[in-house]
Amino acid sequence: MLFKNIDILDENFEIQKDVFVGVSGDRIKYIGKTRPSEDFGDEYDGRNRLLMSGFYNTHAHTAMTLLRGYGENMTLQDWLFTRIFPFEAHLTPESVYWGTLLSMAESMRFGIVSSSDMYYFTDEIVRAVVESGEKINVTRAVAIPDNEPWKFPAIREMKEAFERYNGYADGAVKVDMSIHAEYTCSDATVRTVTEYTKSVNAIMHIHISETRSEHEGCKERHGGLTPVQYFNKMGSWDTPSIAAHCIYIEGEDYDILKEKGVTVASNPNSNLKLSSGVCNVPELLRRGIRVAIGTDSVASNNSLNFFEEMKAFALTGKMMFSDPTVVTPKETLYAATRAGALAQGRTDCGLLKEGFKADLIVVDTHKPNMVPVHDMRNNLVYSADGGDILMTMVDGKVIYENGEYRTIDIDKVIFEAQNCTDEILKKLKQV
């Protein structure tokens, strides 16, 4: 496909106007001001539109779309123990499949091209994602407080998932490892998952300091060690890692995250909704720690609208730390795209650059909320909405365009997802 006369957010996160971009196979092959001599097939008229990298969601629980709006106006512990955990106890492989497809439909609608997922029923998640044409870093999350974790199926399922799916579907599927959190896992569990992660050089994905009680409880349990320090002692940061949330990190934590090259996945809307707190993104950026953006689950966020997430990411740091100059639109756009791709180990993704994967979105800039333009990056972060996305392309294939879902029977997905939800609610009423 040849995009012509289109504005772009280039590899340096600068705006270029009236550009030609040629996509061949799964790659961006040409970017230039003049029409290329090569025939790229179909042509896309880009007037009043902007082409940029798609978004990389670095912390998600995809199948939890089935719990959208189910637990509202509750503290985190009440939310988990009275709503989320009882509902999840009735999930089946089929319900996770349909919940994941619903999440993939919403993702492509809002420009997300790849997600770092933390859940279970890995087979069904992979099947749904591959059918959708999206990408995923999937983990079989491990939460085992027992001192003999190898007796539990989660450990076997974690290893089987890596052996079966890492690199699956031409690399669209990567398998990461996940220790759910310090407070849900014994030392033996942490050691077991950490050792296996190192042995296969996988990416580690962990919830870190999401709440004050989690953070302080860890210090009480481990002789003053914070979650970041505890996992550092256990060797869990010795492979590429994603630390989700990081709201209450302190002191030496920053040094460890920097030294180990850990990516912090900030989840502003979920953290605000659950009153968990605000990640100190300005300080992380000041120290040179990579920060990416996640949505967390739709159960705690209610939406995968990544433009909403970017705006909250930019604004919460300004408000919480009383400095309107921090977390710039350029830094925000980098966090939503390139930083997320790097966190997922997708080194040839997340930039509009020749030779990179064609994971792209087209944004309609000819709308009232996008005019006037003093700096398009400002508009993208503070003014744009998910509804402004006209096209989502993954690996050079258009999977969503102008309301049409190219890979998904959206009516069937909506019907089946609602049906699965209704069946679980019936079971809950019988308990």
Describe this structure in words.
This protein has 431 residues and is of the alpha/beta class. The protein has 2 domains: 2-53 and 350-405, Urease, subunit C, domain 1; 55-343, TIM Barrel, CATH 3.20.20. It is 39% helix and 21% strand. The protein is built from 16 helices and 18 strands. It has helices spanning 76-88, 93-109, 122-132, 153-165, 187-200, 212-221, 227-233, 252-260, 268-273, 281-286, 298-301, 306-320, 329-336, 338-343, 376-382, 410-430; strands at residues 2-9, 15-24, 27-32, 43-45, 49-53, 55-60, 112-117, 135-138, 173-175, 177-179, 204-208, 241-245, 263-266, 291-293, 360-364, 389-394, 397-401, 404-405. Strands 1, 2, 3, 4, 5, 15, 16, 17 and 18 form a 9-stranded mixed beta sheet that branches. A 5-stranded parallel beta sheet has the order 10-11-12-13-14. A hairpin with a 2-residue loop joins strand 17 and strand 18 (404-405). The longest helix is centred in the last third of the chain and has 21 residues, at 410-430. The radius of gyration is 21 Å and the shape is globular.
End-to-end Cα distance: 55 Å
Strand coverage percent = 15-25%
Number of helices: 16
Largest sheet: 9 strands, mixed
